[in-house]
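This part of the workshop introduces the protein records we will be handling. As an example, a complete record with its sequence and its structure tokens follows.
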Amino acid sequence: MARNQRRGFTLIELVIGISVLGLLAAVAAPYLSNGARAYNGTQAALYTVGNLRYTSERITRELRDIDNNGGVFAIATPVNTSGNAITFTKADGVTVSLSAVPPLLQISYDTLAAGAKFTLSDQLSSLTLSYYRSDGLPASTPADVAYIEFEVVLDNGNRYAQRGRVALRNRS
């Protein structure tokens, strides 16, 4: 009598193999999802930090160009208290307004699309502007202002802050 000798896996071997693979997948899945979560968190943080850097540099560039007309800087916003908005005239005669209404930080120019506001950041938590004299004491009038300090805080679930101090140029 000839026997048919087929070799293969039995049903029990297949069930055990699938069970072991399932167990390995259950152990490995949290590590893979933690890696993906860490990657997404890092990408969000990098986006926010880049946005913070851009916003701070833009504010610095605009503030440096405030017009000094006969020793008085052309700042329309009261300088005797800290605030979250500023309106000023640049050396080229353009009036600039920087306003913070969280989560938006917006800038507008009187020469571009009258009244249109351009968004610098859509993640704003707070903006603080403070005005100082050359001796470091708080300024009381635009003629006293030598420095403007600002602090921008952006939030994407984590808070990222940056401070800057802008020395106004003494052009007459």
Notes: The CA atoms of residues 123 and 156 lie 7 Å apart. The longest strand covers residues 124-132.
